[in-house]
C-alpha cells in the first residue's frame, strides 16, 4: 500500500482527476488477456513525457514499482502489477502528431489505437502494415513494447521493422530520443531496436516515429484446403520457393477446422485436414498472375478445395473462416492458454505432430492455427479450470510444447513476449550467460528496479518481485 504522501505527490504531477485509488477503478487495471489478476495500489494517467518522467523520479525516490500499460491486451502478463505499486496508463497520449507524405514517416503518441493509425494513413494513400489480431483496441506503444507481428509479417515484417525513432523516459526519469527520421544512421548503439520488444522493462515510450509505405494497388485473397498438414506445409515452401512472397499465409489445423465447422457450418469438406488462407498484394495485373501461379503450384500437393475472392466482399467471406476461430474455441473448453511458438517454416508439420502426441499424453484438447509463412503457430491449450488437476496438467503440457519448438530450432514466443507467464520457462531457451547479459542491461538502466519488475526474468533477489 502506498503512503498518502505518495498519492498526493502523484496527484500534483498528473492532476487529481488522473489518479485512481478506489478499488472499483483499480480492478479495471488488474488484469489482461491472460486472465491473471494483480491489484495495483494506484493508477495514474499522465499526459506527456514530462509527467511520466516526474512519476519515475518519484518512484526512484520512494522505491515503489511502476507498471506501464496501454490497452492491457497482452497475452503474457507484461502490464500486470504483480508487485502492487502503480499502473501508469498511456492512453491519454493518443495523438497523431504528424504524417509526412514526402518522406513517408509519421510521428505518433503511444496511446493511439493501431487501427485508428492505419485508417488515418490509408486516407492519404499510405500503408502501415503491422496488423496484430488486437489492432482494433491495442495501442501502438504496446505494439512497440512487445514487437507485435500479425498475419502480414511474412511479407512486411514486425513492428520493429517500421520503428525509426523513439522518445523514451528511462526508468530513472531521464528523457532521451533514439533513432530519428533518416533511413540510415549508425552513430552509437541502436537503442531503438533494444527498446522494441523490451516489454516495458527498459523505458516508457512517449513518442514513436514510424516508417510508412505506399498503399498497395490491389489484393487477392485465396482460401485453400488440403488433405494433410504436410501438403499445406509443402505448399508454403513451394510458393515462397517460386519467388512469390504473399502478404499473408494463415494456417489452421484439423482441430481448428472442426471447431469452426461444428459451430458455424461454413461448408468445409470432411476430407480437409489443413487450411491456408493466402493473400497477395501489389500491382493488380501481377497479383492475378500470382494467384493463378499459386493454384498451379499447390494443386499437386493434396489440394481439396481452392476459392479465390473476386472482390472485397468475397475476400471478407473467405477471412471469416479465420476470424471465427476464437469464438468457436470456447465450445471445446471454457478456459485456454494461448501460446505462440515459432519454428522454421519447413518444420511446421513436425511441431504439429509433436503437439498431437503431447495432447494425447495429457488428454487435453490442443488447437493450432497461426502464421505459416513465418512458422508462427498459436497453440491453444483448452482446459476447464473447474476440473481438478487440469490446470496443472496444462502447465506441464505447455513446457513440453515449448521444448518441442526449441528442439526444432524454434523459439517459445514470436509475438506475445515473455512477461510473467513465460518467465518460468525462459531458461529453456536462453543460456545463463545470455540471461546475465540481459539482466546487466536492465540493472544499468534501472538500478532500483522500479520499472515493470518481475517481467521476463524472475527477479527473486529484488523486493519488488513477487
Give an overview in words.
With about 475 residues, the chain is α+β, with helices and mostly antiparallel strands. The chain has 4 domains: about 5-90, 2-Layer Sandwich (Uridine Diphospho-n-acetylenolpyruvylglucosamine Reductase, domain 2), CATH 3.30.43.10; about 95-215, Uridine Diphospho-n-acetylenolpyruvylglucosamine Reductase, domain 3, CATH 3.30.465; about 220-325, Alpha-Beta Plaits; about 335-420, Alpha-Beta Plaits, CATH 3.30.70. It is built from 16 helices and 18 strands. The protein has helices spanning about 5-15, 25, 50-60, 115-120, 140-145, 155, 190-195, 230-240, 255-265, 285-300, 310-325, 325-330, 350-360, 390-405, 425-430, 430-445, and strands at about 20, 40-45, 65-70, 85-90, 95-100, 105-110, 125, 165-170, 175-180, 205-210, 215, 220-225, 250-255, 275-280, 305-310, 335-340, 365-370, 375-385. The strands form 4 sheets. Strands 15-12-14-13-17-18-16 form a 7-stranded antiparallel sheet, with helices on both faces. A hairpin with a 4-residue loop joins strand 17 (about 365-370) and strand 18 (about 375-385). Helix 1 runs antiparallel to helix 3 and helix 13 (about 350-360) runs antiparallel to helix 14 (about 390-405).
